[in-house]
Amino acid sequence: MAANGASCEQPQKRAGPKDKQNGKPTDLSVRDRRQKDKDERLSLVLWRRPVTTLQYFLLETLIMLKEWTYKLWHRRGAVFLLLVLCSLFSVTYSAEGAHQEYVQYLEKKFLWCAYWVGLGILSSVGLGTGLHTFLLYLGPHIASVTLAAYECGSIDFPEPPYPDEIVCPDDGQLEGSVSLFSIMSKVRLEACMWGAGTAIGELPPYFMARAARQSGADPDDEDYEEFEEMLEQAEDAQDFVTRAKLGVQHMVQKVGFFGILACASIPNPLFDLAGITCGHFLVPFWTFFGATLIGKAVIKMHIQKLFVIITFSNHIVEQMVSLIGSVPRVGPSLQKPFSQYLEAQKNKLHHFGMKTGDDNWLSWVFEKVVLVMVCYFIISIINSMAQSYAKRLQQLRNSEEKTK
């Protein structure tokens, strides 16, 4: 009664979060305890506690290997069948004969597709904290193919995977014979494989939320907690980010397949919560994955691919270099290395295997940026796994305190 009276006297205040089982207000000390545990886990990083972080990382790695070994043992029939297929493929691969031509072709295609699928998974796994492989690998690859097509006047380079450098054919066609659609077809395979990898990377949050909803459990997962708090505060949402997240959630929940397709078909940083949303509302797997795969691997990839190709078209690149030179004071000094870099790339296209002089400082900077981002990604994995082991210890400690 007191709670009801308080709510009548102060209608402007929103009631606190409710416990899912008994409808009572959640104990604030429990929330404080969980926040304290979360802060303690987040402080476990290499630059603050390197020894403890590395120790927890190794222990979490051993636990994960043990869990995967246990799962593989329970699926030993499928593992045995996979080993038999690998053995048959190994025998076919090593045996000499006329079939070697097809085996080598399939091997080349498989490794090329697996490379881009893996980069796509790295890009989307971890709810937005993955390696940005489009900016580091796929975007530069499409740009290099575009520049080579306009410089060579042809797209008849070797089929992917290319040699160390793209080489212009000896009998180049006329410059006007290269079209936008021909360049798009040249990079379609790697772009679609990368998009398929990003769709696969959205599956772990979906399965986590789906399992939690079906079991009725309340997982101690920060992203899932953020999603549930967003649903509780839907009526009081004022900031743009929360309203945008709610918009994605409502579209996915009400429209279904086409809502997921629309969210996946555009560059959408808020799509990270779509997997949790679909899992929470028990959206069928093929509805979620099918729409995500079509949106990311077909529609979105053609939009991104078209943007990169247009940006790096021959006349647009020349206009960009000239615009850089028109910048007051620093323009000419910046224009020179860009011009040298483009000229060096053009020379490499026509003189494969020949040295064209010292490396440009732009390529040196790009290599160092890639190295730094890869190192940061590895460090983030170490920190995340160490924090995961710390969470295990906290859950064990809390369960022991409850039993006392």
Automatic annotation (TrEMBL):
Keyword presence, Transmembrane: yes
Protein keywords: Membrane, Transmembrane, Transmembrane helix
Region (Disordered): 1-35
Source superkingdom: Eukaryota
Membrane-spanning ranges: 77-95, 115-138, 251-267, 273-294, 306-327, 361-382
Protein name: Vacuole membrane protein 1
Organism from which the protein derives: Nothobranchius furzeri
